[in-house]
């Protein structure tokens, strides 16, 4: 249990120390007007207070990822704690903060726009396709997972298809309506429910003295399993997630002041790390080791683990509330996944979003594609989601590194985790069954060569761009005016 508790403490300390360092490195301008004011349109751009934005950001980024991912990552043992803590502090929170703040400096731009500006026009098109694919996968996964949990919670009462339809109907409303009508009004309440349920499970683990294993050299590689790269893709949202780069611009368009960025972007990633630690600890300690956990996962997937943990730790009533909190997680990330996809496509084709008709033209095909994807096996979807998710994180970290390089600031805070994850994602797709199926040793070598080439191209482009000189920050103007 000491590894678990020490990890929680490190996450909190990381927010007040490394988070402050990252904020100072970026250079906050509190007096600068944010897009919430300069681009105000009453739909996507409008100011909301920091407490509300922080809780919305937490729900946006914390889908089933910081729960399902750590539950499956628990099969690797306590080394999962190490990745969650170090990943959240030095990679995930840096990723979220930089994408959020750079977006604020550039009229609330989404990742494809930022990639096009800082990594070249070709990357804009690549990242646009990647982002839409990722968001479709996220939206689909976050329809299926809560529907399954609800179906189980009701003991099979009610059609699974009807539950899916109800969730899709809600997603459509949340995607189309102004952000303050549903998301801004209900998410803060849902955020509190999420935090209470997670803290409840965590406190119960401590009070009941759950046998949470300690990290040792002996269990660093459980059963000789190669933790690189699989662990770093299995646990994503609790440590580092490219999905967050698609969500932070939603809140960058509602943030009142740049000084609130550390609390909203860096802080909520740390909170997600704490949630991930709690669920990883529960999965490791309550099922007689990896054998029992494997059996439960094989029988009912991560949703079954959530139900068992919640009931064991909190009883029937408390467990039901905890399960409801977990159900809310994916729903409140799924709706913003579709909303973000709508905004990215609208920005890409320069289609104003003031009229509901324009929003429908984009939203309806997205939902049709997602409905088709629900017919695919969840496990297969999760594998593709994991790779697309972490590949997007790599791109976002390189965007952050380029911004800081051009600003002549410490770009290593973003480049180092970016290169590490570039190596991990490249190794994975070369070796994985969903990729090229190459032997692991060959995958390591090829991934290293590819990473060296891409990093060399990064520095070549960075030096060339610095020589030309481009404006890092744009004076606010609406996308409609720009079009």
UniProtKB/TrEMBL annotation:
Membrane-topology annotation of the record: Multi-pass membrane protein
Bilayer-spanning residue ranges: 6-23, 54-75, 81-104, 125-145, 157-179, 186-207, 227-243, 264-287, 312-332, 360-381, 387-406, 411-430, 442-460
Signal sequence residues: none
One Pfam family hit: CstA
Alphabetical keyword list: Cell membrane, Membrane, Transmembrane, Transmembrane helix
Residue stretches in coiled coil: none
Listed GO biological process terms: cellular response to starvation
Entry's Gene Ontology cellular component terms: plasma membrane
Subcellular location: Cell membrane
Main location: membrane
Domain CstA N-terminal residues, every copy: 4-167, 291-427
Lineage top rank: taxon: Bacteria
Membership in a protein family: Belongs to the peptide transporter carbon starvation (CstA) (TC 2.A.114) family.
Protein name: Carbon starvation protein A
Provenance organism: Cerasibacillus terrae
């Amino acid at each position: 249990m000491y590894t678990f508790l020490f990890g929680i403490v490190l996450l909190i300390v990381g927010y007040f120390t490394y988070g402050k360092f990252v904020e100072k490195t970026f250079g906050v301008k509190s007096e600068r007007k944010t897009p919430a004011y300069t681009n105000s349109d009453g739909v996507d751009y409008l100011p909301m207070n920091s407490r509300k934005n922080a809780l919305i950001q937490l729900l946006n980024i914390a889908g089933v990822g910081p729960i399902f991912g750590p539950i499956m990552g628990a099969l690797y043992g306590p080394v999962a704690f190490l990745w969650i803590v170090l990943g959240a502090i030095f990679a995930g929170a840096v990723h979220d903060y930089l994408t959020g703040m750079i977006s604020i400096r550039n009229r609330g731009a989404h990742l494809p726009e930022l990639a096009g500006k800082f990594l070249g026009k070709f990357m804009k098109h690549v990242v646009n396709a990647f982002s839409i694919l990722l968001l479709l996968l996220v939206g689909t996964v976050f329809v299926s997972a809560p529907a399954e949990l609800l179906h189980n919670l009701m003991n099979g009462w009610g059609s699974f298809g009807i539950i899916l339809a109800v969730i899709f109907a809600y997603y459509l409303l949340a995607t189309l309506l102004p952000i303050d009508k549903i998301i801004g009004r209900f998410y803060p309440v849902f955020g509190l429910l999420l935090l209470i349920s997670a803290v409840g499970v965590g406190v119960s683990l401590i009070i009941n003295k759950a046998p949470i294993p300690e990290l040792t050299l002996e269990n660093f590689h459980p059963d000789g399993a190669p933790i690189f790269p699989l662990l770093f893709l299995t646990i994503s949202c609790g440590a580092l997630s490219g999905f967050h780069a698609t969500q932070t611009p939603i809140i960058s368009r509602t943030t009142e002041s740049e000084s609130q960025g550390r609390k909203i972007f860096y802080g909520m990633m740390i909170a997600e790390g704490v949630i991930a630690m709690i669920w990883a600890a529960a999965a490791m300690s309550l099922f007689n080791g990896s054998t029992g956990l494997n059996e439960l996962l094989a029988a009912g997937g991560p949703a079954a683990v959530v139900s068992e943990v919640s009931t064991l730790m909190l009883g029937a009533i408390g467990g039901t509330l905890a399960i409801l909190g977990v159900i809310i997680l994916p729903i409140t990330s799924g709706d913003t996944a579709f909303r973000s996809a709508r905004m990215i496509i609208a920005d890409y084709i320069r289609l104003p979003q003031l009229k509901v008709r324009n929003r429908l033209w984009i939203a309806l095909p997205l939902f049709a594609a997602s409905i088709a994807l629900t017919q695919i096996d969840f496990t297969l979807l999760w594998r593709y989601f994991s790779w697309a998710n972490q590949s997007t994180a790599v791109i976002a970290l390189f965007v952050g590194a380029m911004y800081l390089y051009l600003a002549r600031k410490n770009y290593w805070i973003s480049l180092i985790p970016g290169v590490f994850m570039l190596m991990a994602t490249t190794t994975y797709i070369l070796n994985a069954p969903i990729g090229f199926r190459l032997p692991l040793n060959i995958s390591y070598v090829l991934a290293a060569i590819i990473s060296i080439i891409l990093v060399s191209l990064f520095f070549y482009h960075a030096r060339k761009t610095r020589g030309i000189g481009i404006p890092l920050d744009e004076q606010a103007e609406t996308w409609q005016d720009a079009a």
